Amino acid sequence: FEARIVLLGVAYKGNVDDDRESPAYSIKQILESKGYLVRLYDPLIKDDPSISTDLETVTQDADCLVLVTDHTVFKNIKPVDITNMRTKKVVDTRNILNHDDWKKAGFDVLVLGQN
Predict the structure, then answer these.
(1) Is the distance from CB of 38 to CB of 31 less than 8 angstroms?
(2) Residue 16 in 3-state DSSP?
(3) Model confidence over 48-73: pLDDT tens digits?
(4) CB burial readout 74-110, b (16+ within 10 A) else e
C-alpha cells in the first residue's frame, strides 16, 4: 500500500506564516520520489490551497506525522484527538512534542537524533 505522510509545518521557521525556502518542500520532494503520498499541514499559512489548515482532514488515513516546523501551536496538539490515522507514528524533528502524551495515545514516537 502507499504510505501517507503528513508534514506538520511548512513555514521556514516556527511561528511565522512565510514558507519561502522551507525545508518542508525538499522533504516532500524526496518522500514523493520514494513513492510516498505527502500532505502538507500548517495552520499559519492560510493562502495556499495545497497546504491544509485542518488537522482532522489532513490526518485522515495517514500513516505518519513528521513535525518539520517548531510552531508553538504544535505543542498544544492533543494526540488523543487524532483518531482517524491508519497507522499511528510521529517523527519529531524538533524535539518539542510531549512524547509521553503521544505514546499514551498509542503513537510510535521517533525523535530525530535519538535512538
Answers:
(1) yes
(2) coil
(3) 999 999 999 999 999 999 999 999 99
(4) beebebeebeebeebbbbbbbebbebeebeebebebe
CB 70 within 8 A of CB 9: yes
Nearest to residue 8, comparing CAs of 81, 83, 77?
77
pLDDT digits (tens, 9 = 90+) for 4-48: 999 999 999 999 999 999 999 999 999 999 999 999 999 999 999
Residue listed under C-alpha cell 501517507 = 4
C-alpha cell at 38: 505527502
Indicate whether this model's pTM tops 0.90. yes
